[in-house]
Amino acid sequence: RREPLALVNLKKKHEETGEEELASRLDHCKAKATRHIFLIRHSQYNLDGRADKDRTLTPLGREQAELTGRRLASLGLKFDQIIHSSMTRASETTEIISKHLPGVKKISTDLLREGAPIEPDPPVSHWKPEAVQYYEDGARIEAAFRNFIHRADAKQEEDSYEIFVCHANVIRYIVCRALQFPPEGWLRLSLNNGSITHLVIRPNGRVALRTLGDTGFMPPDKITRT
Fold first, then answer.
1. Phi, psi of 47 (to 5 degrees)
2. What secondary structure letter does DSSP report for 58?
3. Helices 168-178 & 131-148 angle (0-180, nearest 10)
4. SS in 3 state form for 4-41?
5. Separation CA 84–CA 171 (nearest Å)
6. Could you tell me the residue ranges of all domains in the chain?
7. pTM flag (> 0.85)
8. From CA 192, how far away is CA 57, in angstroms rounded?
């Protein structure tokens, strides 16, 4: 509902307003800027941790986050903010990345926590969460998509560059939704730890995928998918 026609109350278009005023109102609601969304998967973490607080980054995971932070800094972009999942592995990845991007504000959110977004099709034998998990996590992850992945606000004058540090399931679902692909296919995508996925959202709402799960900036012996 960010198309200009969806933002203008057409009921107010009386005979005396005319087409010119309607055109002016529509123009006022049009986005002008492009949003660049960088989706970062957290680095390798301790899989043996029972609780989230115990699932901290491994030494290799911390190295991966350093490499991702350096890569983002090397792009020479003026990042507006880093929004990250409130889970431990995403928060720790964010802290390391942010050292390379001084002054960029960090925002934590529960919406981006890991979960089961939608039942995959075709199904897989090694991962079968309870059906209720899809209803609980799916609604939240869909809310994250709607909340964060959209064209720029009409008031935004300049292009923006935003970083989201979260999880593989969340990123894969968001990519499918943003590209208007069947979201049930999210599990067919694979993302390395610390990888960078770059979405571009134009003022007219069109979306382009620049990179998916890029880890070309990491040495081969540092790449993992755990």
1. -75, -15
2. P
3. 60
4. HHHHCCHHHCCCCCHHHHHHHHHHHCCCCCCEEEEEEE
5. 12
6. 1-30, 33-222
7. yes
8. 14
For the domain covering 33-222, report its CATH number: 3.40.50.1240
Sheet with 81-85, side-by-side order of all strands = 105-109, 81-85, 160-166, 35-41, 196-201, 207-214
> pLDDT tens, position by position, for the chain (226 residues)?
777 767 766 665 555 555 667 667 777 788 999 999 999 999 999 999 999 999 999 999 999 999 999 999 999 999 999 999 999 999 999 999 999 999 999 999 999 999 999 999 998 888 888 889 999 999 999 999 999 999 999 999 999 999 999 999 999 999 999 999 999 999 999 999 999 999 999 999 999 999 999 999 999 999 999 8
**Residue 18 CB-density burial (10 A; 0-12 exposed, 13-18 middle, 19+ buried):** exposed
Q: Both ends of the chain: CA-CA distance in Å? A: 37
Q: What pLDDT, on a 0 to 100 scale, did the predictor assign at position 11? A: 60
For 152, residues 6+ apart whose C-beta sits below 8 A from its C-beta are 31, 32, 33, 34, 35, 160, 201, 203
Contact status, residue 213 vs residue 41, Cβ threshold 8 Å: yes
Task: Look at residue 109 in the predicted model and tell me its pLDDT.
Answer: 98
Rounded Cα–Cα distance for residues 39 and 26 (Å): 31
Enter the DSSP assignment of 86: S
Tokens, residue 94? 């964010």
Those residues whose C-beta lies under 8 Å from the C-beta of residue 103, and which sit 6 or more positions away, are none
Give the separation between CA 197 and CA 22, rounded to whole angstroms.
39
